[in-house]
Write a structure and sequence with these properties.
The protein has helices spanning 2-15, 31-34, 65-77, 94-104, 115-120, 122-132, 148-163, 178-187, 197-202, 207-213, 244-247, 265-279; strands at residues 50-54, 82-85, 107-114, 136-140, 168-172, 192-196, 218-223, 225-227, 230-232, 253-256. The chain has 280 residues and is α/β, with parallel strands linked by helices. The longest helix is centred in the middle third of the chain and has 16 residues, at 148-163. The chain is globular and about 45 Å long.
Length: 280
């Protein structure tokens, strides 16, 4: 119990900046020049990609077992049966999470957490991923001031540990990781990628080109959007989706995500899923 309380405090500190504030001043430029006019997900790509929802979207609604079960029921009612787990209060018993998934017919293909938080609570996240049948354990963010070579060694050890349990490791880069990302990925070739398009778009790189470069390793993607730093449903913001879905043709799972909202979050993900499926 005490360990779960400590983990909850750590998570509150890590995610406090997401509560109703701008994601970054970087995104506060002229909205007309960035064209927030709902750039469509073009083409017919991503035909084999399974759409899903990143559960961090509902973080404030995942504080107890009943809430987790209710969120999963509502997700299933939307016609979505695939999720990536993140944001569930650690006080919620792992067996309750697994049972709620079973009862609703929703499959969790991955558990995700910030690497620094995971590292301090390894047993919890390893047990959670095992209990829900996750294919990937996904970690994000290169730790601040970390040596990339040493971090790569730690990730290789984690990948080997997961492999012994028939699981895989994936890395979710954030904006600040990109100057070091190619080096890190070259040092851990056995590690898959969970790509967040919002973070990649912020770097100014051409997203389809980046996906093509790591085509065999990008197994999951996050469709996330914003207007001047405020999150909106995917497809309704400033992110330029040109060519992205075509580039995702061999990606396994595409999760819509919106960590901050000022309206019904289920309506937000329903809109994002409709946009994604229309683009497919």
């Amino acid at each position: 119990m005490i360990k779960n309380i400590r983990l909850r405090i750590e998570l509150q500190k890590e995610y406090a900046p997401l509560r109703g504030v701008r994601l970054s001043a970087l995104d506060s430029g002229d909205s007309n020049s960035l064209n927030p006019g709902r750039r469509a997900a073009d083409g017919t790509g991503g035909k084999h990609m399974i759409p899903g929802i990143q559960l961090s979207t509902f973080r404030p609604l995942l504080t107890n077992s009943d809430q987790v079960a209710d969120v999963l029921r509502k997700i299933a009612a939307l016609g979505c049966h695939t999720v990536q787990l993140q944001g569930i209060d650690p006080a919620v018993p792992i067996p309750d999470i697994a049972e709620a998934l079973r009862k609703t017919g929703v499959r969790a293909v991955s558990v995700q957490e910030i690497y620094a938080v995971f590292q301090r609570n390894r047993d919890y996240y390893l047990r959670l991923n095992q209990a829900v049948g996750g294919v990937w354990l996904t970690v994000s963010r290169i730790p601040e001031k970390a040596d990339v070579g040493r971090f790569a060694q730690d990730l290789k050890a984690l990948a080997a540990e997961l492999s012994a349990h028939q699981q895989k490791l994936a890395f979710h880069p954030v904006y600040e990781d990109y100057p070091f990302l190619d080096d890190l990925l070259s040092k851990v070739p056995e590690m898959d990628i969970c790509l967040d398009f919002y973070h990649l778009w912020r770097t100014g790189q051409k997203m389809p080109d980046w996906i093509d470069r790591y085509r065999s390793r990008v197994r999951m993607v996050h469709f996330k959007d914003a207007v001047n730093g405020r999150m909106v449903p995917a497809g309704q913001g400033q992110v330029d989706w040109t060519g992205v879905l075509d580039a995702c043709a061999r990606v396994d799972y595409g999760f819509v995500e919106q960590e901050v909202w000022d309206t019904d979050p289920f309506a937000c993900v329903q809109s994002a899923l409709a946009w994604l499926k229309q683009g497919k």
